TrEMBL record:
Its main location: membrane. It holds the Pfam family SdiA-regulated. It is found in: Cell membrane. Signal peptide: none annotated. The keyword Cell membrane applies. This is SdiA-regulated. One of its GO terms (cellular component) is plasma membrane. Transmembrane segments: none annotated. Keywords: Cell membrane, Membrane. It comes from Hymenobacter psychrophilus. Residues 36-58 are annotated as: Disordered.
């Protein structure tokens, strides 16, 4: 085990928004107005071999997605032991269904253009939400989430969005925090977590409704994350949120999502596993993680 790492304070700010179709704030979500105290967290990992992570506590390599180009998201399908994933920027608009070892079970062609698919999440009735919200240069004005049921992929609804606090395309380099690679569905809302390309220390949390429309996203809070977020996962019991970053996890815990978003995270190192891009819980203790190189891992919480 490594020595304790100091995790930055968790700051939270709520901004109001106006929209063509206004977003309702999720019920019971309290937004902090002051920073929480700085806390320490034990880094639960050892150095592993490049792309393998053999020596990291609680991490096990379980498979390889050889037929998925640059896997960049991970979601449950509703069938035990299977997942949805997709390729990164520049790949075809295909949703892949894979098993727990990474073998491709189905290829689902989605009749839309793929500019920069970065995330996929699923609601509680089988719809999936594919985030074409990759925005490396922070200059896009065509951000969209595709909503579809994989059993009938020819019908695709669009959730178009913009950010209430972006007025320049692109903004100054230090303010470039409008790239999103992480999303999750919860209680009728799609949560979006930014990847801070400006200063690399803050992930902003936005929400939009899970219905088709044209929205100004609502800025719910800001999380002090000393890393660039690539995916998000909420445990089935709703008490643990994981933000995946490059070879590391940031873990938040609380009684519900409102409390979680005010909590201070602990950091878990995944040094050596590769470019970590996808994360989803299968149980309250088991987190599946995918890398752009196609490797599949499980991380077991105690």
């Amino acid at each position: 085990m490594r020595a304790f790492l100091v995790v930055p304070a968790l700051a939270a700010t709520l901004l109001g928004s106006c929209s063509e179709a206004k977003t309702n704030q999720p019920e019971g979500l309290a937004i902090a107005t002051a920073a929480d105290p700085v806390t320490s967290a034990k880094e639960q990992g050892k150095k592993g071999k490049k792309g393998k992570g053999d020596d990291i506590d609680n991490l096990t390599k379980v498979g390889k997605m050889k037929e998925v180009p640059e896997s960049s998201g991970l979601a449950l399908t509703g069938e035990p032991g299977t997942f949805y994933t997709h390729g990164d920027d520049g790949n075809q608009p295909i949703l892949y269904k894979v098993d727990a070892k990474g073998e491709v079970l189905a290829r689902i062609e989605v009749p839309v253009k793929s500019r920069d698919w970065e995330s996929v999440t699923r609601d509680n009735v089988g719809n999936v939400y594919i985030g074409d919200v990759g925005n490396n240069n922070n200059n896009r004005k065509d951000l969209v989430i595709h909503r579809l049921n994989p059993l009938n992929p020819q019908i695709v609804q669009e959730i178009q969005l913009k950010y209430p606090d972006q007025n320049e395309f692109p903004p100054k380099k230090k303010d470039r925090n409008f790239d999103v690679e992480a999303s999750l569905w919860h209680a009728g809302q799609v949560y979006l977590f930014t990847k801070d390309r400006g200063e690399g220390k803050t992930s902003k949390v936005y929400t939009v409704p899970d219905q088709a429309g044209n929205y100004t996203a609502r800025l719910q809070t800001k999380l002090a994350i000393n890393g660039q977020v690539t995916d998000a996962a909420l445990s089935p019991n709703g008490r643990r949120l994981v933000l995946l970053a490059r070879e590391e996890l940031f873990v938040f815990e609380g009684d519900d999502l409102a409390a979680i978003l005010k909590a201070a995270p602990r950091r878990i190192s995944l040094k050596g596993v590769g470019q970590t891009e996808g994360a989803v819980f299968t149980t309250d203790q088991t987190l599946y993680i995918s890398t752009e190189q196609g490797n599949l891992f499980t991380y077991q919480f105690e």
